[in-house]
Amino acid sequence: QVSLVESGGGLVQTGGSLRISCAASGRTFGGYTLGWFRQAPGKDREFTAAIRWNGGSTSYANSVKGRFTISLDKAKNTVYLQMSSLIPEDTAVYYCATWYGITLSSMHSISQYDYWGQGTQVTVSS
């Protein structure tokens, strides 16, 4: 059984930086894609960033491109989301997700992911 555990959320001021982590366990992840999604109060969950275990291809939502960086530490089975130049609109619960065999063109699609973490709250104050 796959387990995803997010950590590192918190309160940060506008313009600040924060790194959140997702520790994955339960299987070997070759062929899997790991993604970050976020959900603000009253809004739908939306794609933020994703990375493929094999090859390291990445994808970003336009709203975070150039400010957020997703990375993978295979030795620790951990995916990170480094967030910089944060703005209040980035306030949300951030979820880690994964599934096998997601194509590059579908990495942004929430329906492609079957395993989800419990989420970590990120709050950006103005």
Residue share in β-strands: over 45%
In N-to-C order, the SSE pattern is EEEEEEEEEEE
Tally of individual helices: 0
Give the overall pLDDT as a whole number: 96
Please state the CA-atom Rg, rounded to the nearest Å: 13 Å
SS elements, strand count: 11
Query: Considering DSSP H and I runs of 4 or more, what fraction of the residues is helical?
Result: under 10%
- Distance, first to last CA: 40 Å
Summarize this, please?
The protein has 126 residues and is mainly beta. The protein has no helices and eleven strands.
Features:
single chain, mainly beta, seven-stranded mixed sheet, 51% strand
List the helices and strands and how they pair.
Blueprint: E1 3-7, E2 10-13, E3 18-25, E4 32-39, E5 46-52, E6 58-60, E7 68-73, E8 78-83, E9 92-100, E10 115-116, E11 120-125
Parallel strand pairs: 2-11
Antiparallel strand pairs: 1-3, 3-8, 4-5, 4-9, 5-6, 7-8, 9-10, 9-11
Characterise the protein shown here.
Strand 7 and strand 8 form a beta hairpin. Strands 2, 4, 5, 6, 9, 10 and 11 form a seven-stranded mixed β-sheet that branches. Strands 1-3-8-7 form a four-stranded antiparallel β-sheet, with no helix packed on it. The protein has strands spanning 3-7, 10-13, 18-25, 32-39, 46-52, 58-60, 68-73, 78-83, 92-100, 115-116, 120-125. The protein is mainly β and 126 residues long. The protein is built from no helices and eleven strands.
